[in-house]
Design a protein that fits this description.
This protein is mostly helical and 287 residues long. α3 runs antiparallel to α9. The longest helix is centred in the N-terminal third of the chain and has 36 residues. The protein is extended, with a radius of gyration of 28 Å. The two termini are 49 Å apart.
Length: 287
């Protein structure tokens, strides 16, 4: 019996035919839905040359590229600062000192419950900060608080025996966290970390509400142009694949890091030489 058939019975010929029929029906239904959507877009003139003409101009292309660069800049800053803030808050939540633990918990729960847009507007309007720092601050406070819970849960998910064994060797708490708990917890944290970074990437689009010239803001300028008959749908069809592609790239990077971690020298199996004849002892006359 193969490994894949241990937990369930192997489907028979009738079940295989039925599953293939279900798959064929689902595929046809999906193709029909796509065809219906395309028909509606054609019927409303969304593929007309006039609506797609703006993307042929160099100025429009430069506007989109500049907006994409600003989006990546905001995301890069927010991602790095969120990871750093999440690590600090997670360390505070895991602290043995009660005031530190309570303070970190209060900060995490407050900013995790606060809407991102409210924080961005507060920093931008009340503190009169420039659009980019306001956007990055709001994203950092929210995502850093969420990542703090991810880090704490990842460390807590490590088997308790690992912690006890490390303390029995005489390691201090900092050494136990650095060399034992965090390296093992990272594997469990990685999918949640990447998911939260994807959220941060998508939330950079909130920058257009505070006049930050990011990717969505550039698309809004094009979509609201009366000279090209308000090409809203074409702009969505151009911008959406770019956001999807960036999120897929983040997921690919996460998978690459996970595979590299599994191939790490510290985690891979050590090859042992096959047993052979023992070397003769000094004074042994047997040959």
């Amino acid at each position: 019996m193969t490994t894949t058939a241990v937990l369930y019975d192997v489907p028979g010929p009738r079940t295989v035919r039925r599953h293939r029929l279900y798959g064929l029906i689902a595929t046809l239904a999906l193709l029909a839905l796509i065809a219906w959507v395309i028909h509606l877009l054609v019927d409303t003139g969304q593929f007309a040359y006039r609506k797609w003409m703006p993307f042929a101009y160099v100025g429009i292309q430069e506007l989109l590229l500049r907006g994409l660069g600003n989006t990546l800049k905001a995301f890069g800053l927010a991602a790095v600062l969120s990871l750093a803030l999440g690590g600090v808050l997670a360390a505070g939540r895991l602290s043995d000192h009660r005031p530190v633990r309570w303070s970190a918990t209060l900060i995490v729960e407050f900013f995790r419950a606060m809407p991102v847009l409210v924080m961005i507007f507060f920093v931008f309007v009340a503190l009169k900060v420039q659009p980019l720092p306001a956007l990055v601050t709001g994203l950092t406070l929210y995502n850093g608080s969420v990542l703090a819970e991810v880090f704490r849960a990842g460390v807590a998910a490590v088997d308790r025996g690992q912690r006890e064994a490390a303390y029995s060797l005489g390691l201090r708490k900092t050494q136990v966290m650095t060399y034992v708990l965090v390296p093992q917890g990272v594997r469990a944290m990685l999918p949640a970390i990447i998911s939260q970074l994807v959220v941060a990437l998508k939330d950079t689009s909130l920058g257009f509400l505070i006049t930050y010239e990011e990717f969505l803001h550039a698309g809004k300028l094009i979509a609201s142009n009366l000279d090209y008959d308000l090409p809203f749908i074409p702009v969505v069809m151009v911008i959406s694949p770019v956001y999807i592609g960036m999120c897929m790239l983040l997921s690919w990077c996460a998978n690459w890091v996970a595979k590299r971690e599994r191939r790490s020298v510290k985690t891979e199996k050590v090859r042992v030489a096959p047993p052979g004849p023992a070397a003769p002892l000094p004074g042994d006359t047997r040959a």
